[in-house]
Amino acid sequence: MSDTSGWYYCLTHQTVEQGKGCRGGDRMGPYPDEATAAHALEMARERTRAADESDKKWRGDDED
User: Fold this and answer.
1) Which of 16, 19, 26, 42 has the fewest CB atoms lying closer than 10 Å?
2) Which domain of life does the protein's organism represent (predicted)?
3) What's this model's pTM, rounded to 2 decimal places?
4) Closest Cα to residue 1, out of 16, 20, 17, 15?
5) Residue 1 maps to a domain
């Protein structure tokens, strides 16, 4: 019986995997479904952008 829990995005192969796959350090997830895992990189970029903006505001770098 294979492990079918969770969906992951494999950074090495740039594909979505379900359950056991590539090693954990090469994957993002788990995600609740395949569609969410497929957008893992986009979500990470957006979260990074939002955190960068938040840091700028906190430091006062956003003022002209």
Assistant:
1) 42
2) Bacteria
3) 0.72
4) 20
5) no
